[in-house]
Amino acid sequence: MLMLGFAGFMGLLKIVLMALAAFALIDAAVRREDAFRAADKQNKVFWLIILGIALVVSFLFSILSILPIAGLVATIVYLVDVRPAVRQVSGGGGGWGRRRGSSSDGPYGPYNGGR
Fold first, then answer.
1. pLDDT tens digits, 54-97
2. Based on the number of CB atoms within 10 Å of its own CB, is 5 exposed (0-12), middle (13-18) or buried (19 or more)?
3. Which of 27, 39, 77, 110 could crosslink 89 through cysteines, CB 3.0-4.6 Å?
């Protein structure tokens, strides 16, 4: 009975790990390439490869082996270090349709009605 509960907990932990790696991979995919360079981080392709490997490894291997732990470390490094730096350089929106500014803002700044 105890082993069944432990297996269920480990399965849930594996799903959470895969979801975290998938979120980081999607987030890295929607960021601009030049934002990675401007933030002085590794390039976008590097992070896509690392996070893709982390996702595949977390799917294929048991959570108790070393490879998913290394994938988790890479995912945490991206989410805690790289993602905030890239968001700050690129303006924070990330292309998710978040609206910034006033409704009267034009392409060159706020529109003041000809005053």
1. 999 999 988 888 999 999 999 999 999 999 999 988 876 544 55
2. exposed
3. 39
